[in-house]
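Example 427.
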Amino acid sequence: MSDETLIPMLPIEEFERRERRRMSPVADIWDLLDRVKDPEVPVISIWELGVLQDITVQEDVVTVSITPTYSGCPAINAMAEDIVDCLAAAGYDHVNVQTRLQPAWTTSWMSAEAKRKLVDYGIAPMQKDDEGIQCPHCRSVDVKLVSYFGSTACKALYQCKSCDEPFDYFKNL
Amino acid sequence: MSNVANEKIAAYANRLGDDSLIHGHRLSEWCSNGPFLEEDLAMTNVALDYIGRARNFLTYAAELIGGGATEDTLAYERDCLEYTNLLIYELPKGDFAFTTARQYLLDEFELLFLTALCNSEDSTLAAVAEKSLKETRYHLRRSKEWMLRLGNGTEESKEKLQTAVEQLIGYTPELFEVDALEKDLISGGIAVDRAGLEESWRSACEKTFDEAGVNMPQAVWRVKGGRTGFHTEHLGHLLADMQFVQRAYPGCQW
Ligand SMILES: [Zn+2]
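Predicted structure in complex with zinc ion:
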């Protein structure tokens, strides 16, 4: 039996993250933050990206915990600002965004749905061991690596040998 | 935890932050100067990872130091004598072969060092290491590939790579030096015993050098001094560039 036929297992950190949302007494705030997108891939929300880790409310202070994708990812500051703006628009004036490094972010937290959105946006989603990467334009797997690093920290640059189009690949981390 | 211990952990985090910051800055100098666009992007992306790593280490150091210290005061308000990065990080970027060789030697080192730091008793250092380790694994894939391409490329690329390695080798023993501060922190389960990494590092490097057809020289000469503030003349120039805005407009923010 090949790996693909096994039931996909959710990493424990991702299971816990989904539980935190499911059990949260402030479901409306989680829902509001679904509007905050990754500034570099604006079809994916910070929830789908795995960056949004937790939301707690004490008195009237909302604390939002996020985790960076890459240590030097400049988008993290933009995401923090967008979180504050999004909640302020809904009447939450005291918002505290804190960054957590542990557990370290991994692409394995991203859902199948998020991967589908990446493809529709023209980005090839991460594959285990970076093997079996598919061209998001023509679905060919006959592709080659052009550069380990692309336009942002989370992407590498590939080219399709079937349709010749270059494309971004969301790196496996 | 006692304040004495905190002071030592702060100094240790500061060192690791200095190493990452200076390395990140050197890589950033390739921005718009890369041999071609893809490598320009690669080097600046790696630079970003190192600067992010530096921010994590320096923010933690600043927290422990207290008294208004921040990642920015540590980065922008210290001069050469107070910088504690190892010398290998501050050497000018040189040509592409030199940058590649340095990156490769350091990637092999970082892989071992960060793997060990993940087990630190200090949970913040361990968290920064866990984050950085994933990035370093990826950096190593690229730097190793370039070692093979340059080594097995043309006579000229091979010669440039060999020259670069010979210029770098005497700076590598400092990576494995343990001083009194680190000895203390090692016994507390906080710091990594660098000395214990040298053998694995050398054999990993030798394997790649073999494949690249380049000799891995012995370090017959060696230079040190970074941890005690005795730097090469290059660091001052780097800091003049990196700190210019803060020196001209103290405390400015954007
Ligand atoms: Zn295609």
